[in-house]
C-alpha cells in the first residue's frame, strides 16, 4: 500500500516548495496563536496559492470558533480542517457548515485514549492519531512527542486515519511497518528549531516515505 505524507506547520515559500517538490500529499498551516508556526490568513493565502490541485491544503486548529475557520477557508483557501481538542459534536458542526474534509485529532498516551476515536464516527472524515503532549504543555501537538505505536495493534479504526506525533526521517519507516499507516504527518521532525522548517529535513522525510 503506498504511503502518503503531510508536512505540517509551513510558513515560508521555500519550505512549502520543498514539501511539494518532495511529493507531499498534504501541506499544513497552523492557525493557533500560541504556536511558533501560527500564520495569519493573509500569509496563508499567499502560501496556499502555490499549492497545486493534487496537494491538499490543511488548516490546523485547536477548538476554533466559526469565525477563525471562516477566515482560513474563505481568505486562505484551505480545503481540509484538522481539529485538535474539539468535541465530536463541534467537529460535526464545522464539517457540516464548511462542507470540506474534516479530520479529528485524537491524543494518545494509553490504550483507553483510543476510545475517543469511536466518538468521531459520523462526525469526521478521518482520525489523526497524535501523541498526547504533557499536562500544561503550550501546544496539543507539534512538540515532537511520540506515542507507543503498539497501542494501535488490533484496534478497529472507526474511520480512515493518519499517524502523527514525533515522526522524522529516521523513524517513519518503523512507524509505518509497526502500525500499517498509509498517511503520516510530521511537523517538528522536519525543523531545525521550533517553528523553523528545514528544506533538507523535509526532503529526507519525504524520501523515506517514498521508499516504503
Ligand atoms: O504544530 C503545531 O504548532 C500545532 C499546534 C496546535 C495543534 C497541533 C499542532 N501540530 C500538529 O501536531 C502533530 C504532531 O506534530 P510533531 O510532528 O510531533 O511535531 C502534527 O499533526 C501537527 O499537525
From TrEMBL:
Keywords: Amino-acid biosynthesis, Aromatic amino acid biosynthesis, Isomerase, Tryptophan biosynthesis. Pfam families: PRAI. Pathway: Amino-acid biosynthesis; L-tryptophan biosynthesis; L-tryptophan from chorismate: step 3/5. Transmembrane segments: none annotated. One of its GO terms (molecular function) is phosphoribosylanthranilate isomerase activity. CDD domains: PRAI (cd00405). It catalyses: N-(5-phospho-beta-D-ribosyl)anthranilate = 1-(2-carboxyphenylamino)-1-deoxy-D-ribulose 5-phosphate. Its EC number is 5.3.1.24. Signal peptide: none annotated. It comes from the Bacteria. Belongs to the TrpF family. NCBIfam families: PRK01222.1-1. This is N-(5'-phosphoribosyl)anthranilate isomerase. The gene is trpF.
Amino acid at each position: 500500500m503506498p504511503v502518503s505524507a503531510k508536512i505540517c506547520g509551513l510558513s515560508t515559500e521555500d519550505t512549502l516548495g520543498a514539501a511539494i517538490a518532495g511529493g507531499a500529499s498534504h501541506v499544513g498551516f497552523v492557525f493557533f496563536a500560541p504556536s511558533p508556526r501560527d500564520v495569519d490568513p493573509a500569509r496563508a493565502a499567499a502560501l496556499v496559492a502555490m499549492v497545486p490541485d493534487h496537494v491538499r491544503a490543511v488548516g490546523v486548529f485547536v477548538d476554533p470558533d466559526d469565525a477563525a475557520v471562516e477566515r482560513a477557508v474563505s481568505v486562505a483557501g484551505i480545503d481540509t480542517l484538522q481539529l485538535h481538542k474539539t468535541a465530536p459534536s463541534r467537529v460535526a458542526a464545522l464539517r457540516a457548515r464548511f462542507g470540506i474534509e474534516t479530520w479529528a485529532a485524537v491524543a494518545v498516551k494509553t490504550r483507553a485514549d483510543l476510545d475517543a476515536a469511536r466518538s468521531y464516527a459520523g462526525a469526521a472524515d478521518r482520525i489523526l492519531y497524535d501523541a498526547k503532549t504533557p499536562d500544561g504543555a503550550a501546544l496539543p501537538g507539534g512538540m515532537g512527542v511520540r506515542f507507543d505505536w503498539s497501542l494501535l495493534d488490533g484496534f478497529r479504526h472507526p474511520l480512515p486515519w493518519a499517524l502523527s506525533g514525533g515522526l522524522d526521517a529516521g523513524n517513519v519507516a518503523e512507524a509505518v511497518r509497526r502500525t500499517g499507516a498509509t498517511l503520516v504527518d510530521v511537523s517538528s521532525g522536519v525543523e531545525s528549531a521550533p517553528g523553523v522548517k528545514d528544506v533538507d529535513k523535509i526532503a529526507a522525510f519525504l524520501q523515506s516515505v517514498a521508499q516504503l
